[in-house]
Amino acid sequence: MPHIARYAWFFFPLATACSHSDEEGDHHGAVKGKPTASVCRSSSAPTYASFGRAYMTTYCTTCHSSQLTGAARKDAPAGTNFDDVESVVAMAEHIDEHAAAGPAAVNTQMPPSGPQPSEAERRQLGQWLACEALGAGGVHAGGGASTGGAHD
Fold it and tell me: Does 101 have pLDDT greater than 90?
C-alpha cells in the first residue's frame, strides 16, 4: 500500500484531466469552435452540387437527418438536420464553428466519430459555407469581402 500513496500525486491529475463536462459543449459534447473567417472566392467557389451535398451526406447526415429519430441520431438535436441546402444555410455559422477550417480557425469538433474530413475538405467546407450563406459580396464569420456567390 505505501507504494500506491507515493504515486497517487502522479495518477490523480491524469485521471481527472480526462473527464469532460457537458456544460462546456453542445450536442455530442462538442465544444463550440471559433469562426473560420472563410471567404467566398467566385473563381473557385464550390457549390452544393459540386461539393456540399456529398460532404453533408458523408460526414453529417448520418446523425443530422430528418429521416432519423431517437438513438439513430446519436445525440444530434432533433430539428438540426442538414438534408438540403436551405437547412445547411440556416445553420451555416454553427457548422462553420464546429466543422470548417479557414484563415482564423480549424474546427474539428464535428463529426465526433466515424469518417473524418481532411483539413483540405474542412477548408473547402468553410469556403462553400461562405458562398452559400452570404452569396455575392459576403464573408462567413468575420473575414473580408467575397467576390461572388456559388448557390446551386
Answer: yes
